[in-house]
Design goal:
Strand content: 15-25%
Number of strands: 16
Helix content: 25-40%
Catalytic activity: a 2,3-saturated acyl-[ACP] + NADP(+) = a (2E)-enoyl-[ACP] + NADPH + H(+)
Radius of gyration: 22 Å
CATH architecture of the largest domain: Alpha-Beta Complex
Number of helices: 12
Main location: mitochondrion
GO biological process, one term: fatty acid metabolic process
GO molecular function, one term: enoyl-[acyl-carrier-protein] reductase (NADPH) activity
Bound molecules: NADP nicotinamide-adenine-dinucleotide phosphate
Order of helices and strands: HEHEEHEEEEEHHEHEHEEHEHEHHEHE
CATH topology of the largest domain: Quinone Oxidoreductase, Chain A, domain 1
Organism: Lactuca sativa (Garden lettuce)
Largest sheet: 7 strands, mixed
Amino acid sequence: MACTRFVTLKAIHGTWTHSQLLSPRIHTSGIVRAFSALKSPPSTAVFYEKHGPPDTVTKVIELPPVPVGANDVCVKMLAAPINPSDINRIEGVYPVRPPLPTVAGYEGVGEVHSIGSAVQGLSPGDLVMASPPSPGTWQTHVVKDKDFWHKIDRDTPVEYAATVTINPLTALRMIEDYVDLKSGDAIVQNGATSMVGQCVIQLAKLRGIHTINIIRDRPGSDDAKEKLKKLGADVVFTESQLDVKNVKGFLDNLPEPALGFNCVGGNAASLVLKFLRQGGTMVTYGGMAKKPVTVSTSSFIFKELSLKGFWLQKWISSDRKEECREMIDYLLGLIREGKLKYDMELAPFSEFHTALDKALGKLGSQPKQVIKF
Ligand SMILES: NC(=O)c1ccc[n+]([C@@H]2O[C@H](COP(=O)([O-])OP(=O)(O)OC[C@H]3O[C@@H](n4cnc5c(N)ncnc54)[C@H](OP(=O)(O)O)[C@@H]3O)[C@@H](O)[C@H]2O)c1
């Protein structure tokens, strides 16, 4: 179980009130092992007490040491990404949110700092990732039950270990779980520059599956197209290029796709639907444009399209910890072999707020921000 941390120190940006000083502040479900002799180091953490715009409600504060119980592992965090779902949790619009106040972040990687007396199979210095992912990874030291940590190969690049669970695993499950695709088939997707999208391109290619990719119109879209083609994309179009009556004319020799992925919503989702073949399936997993999916009546009646939704958190929580770790190891293997890669920018923790602004889109289109502790 995760350990409860009591906030009793002065915030780096602000001072705690008397009642804040007296009350337990961070709830991650679990047991407080108050009498353990072993303690974690103090932790510097991205913390929020209320939901709202992430650039205004988050503070970097120092949290005092917490006990490391017999079954606990204290991990010195090395890296953790800023994913869109982290932003949504802080905003308060994600369907499942940790109770407030809390430390932000959901996935990440670190090095074992110390272990409780009953812990076996992990030693100080091991590289471990939060698996299954859980709240509170944006801090320098995390104490959680040993079952939360998955030991991985020391030679895994930390930025990949930090990011492999949420996005690459989503891409893998969506390719495997909805349509029985064979080598030579095709997938169409929007949001192709996203981390999920980049993984879809490469994981599909490894299976001999073609990808038709749609990206938004923005400065740098030509470079983005070239990057995606280097990853293995068969074709890449901006939304405006597809503003024609019959998008199928762009398929050339590619087969009509039976499966489509929708990361964006709005017009970009309609374009995915237009490419799908008779009886095809569109899986929605993101809503980056914050616009609804609109489907024509004829798509249902005459084209017999199916619409599905995928949510990794639900998938993982249905008793799949071991299965999940096997897939993580498979993906990390591809990464170490150079068969799976994606764009990221490592941001020093001291520049957290700049990284957050980039992740919020305030500085234009940016690669995935990964905090380096
Ligand atoms: N359902 C699930 O279980 C699950 C799991 C993982 C991820 N997701 C969702 O998948 C989506 C992508 O996540 P990610 O981490 O892979 O993304 P990411 O790497 O952070 O990239 C963000 C993507 O969104 C695009 N984008 C940003 N603002 C946009 C806007 N206003 N309109 C259209 N596109 C916009 C970006 O395009 P540019 O390159 O043009 O900037 C980029 O492709 C998110 O919605 C995330 O929540 C869902």
